[in-house]
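Sat 14:20. Reprocessing the chain from the morning session after the first attempt stalled halfway. Input below, unchanged.
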Amino acid sequence: AAALFLAVFYKVFGASPWPVFWFQALLGALTAVLCGHAAWKAWQDGPASVAAGLAAAVAWPFLYPAGQLLPKSLEMFLAALAVWLLSGAEPPCGLRALASGCALGAVCSLRPQLAPAGLLAAAALRFSWPRCSWKPALCFAVPVLGLSLAWGAYLCARGIPAFIQTRSGLNLYIANHPGATGKAADYPGLEF
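Finished this time. Tokens:
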């Protein structure tokens, strides 16, 4: 999925990585806004929502991927969107839970390892609001599991193990960019 996302950018904007970097920076900014607004919806507290937004804006795990060709910027935005859609004092309706499940399902298609956590989130959704029916939890769980399994089946049908896809955007860039050195950059501080 990340490779397709990156391929669209290369098709539209050419071989330059700068449009992708700008878009990832935009996703990072929107992630911070969604985190702040989710805190507002949950607690109706201005300082808490500003603190949550600022923490997301300056957190190293949010900043570093925006400067690299990694699918994490898209993953974090979609995860923040899922949380934002579920946040609030009232239980989410079926449509909000479905949209949130689709966003988290897209994250799980980028990182198949997260699918069990998505299913646990569906159970937590059901038990967080005891008077809530099972409908929102099912509306959340079906796209999480469905998108994960559909993308995994698509990859397996082509002989690609799903776990290899977790850095596919970077791998596509390394393989297809004329200026690429063929080596992936390590996270700062993790060089061996």
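Residues 18-43 form the longest helix (26 residues).
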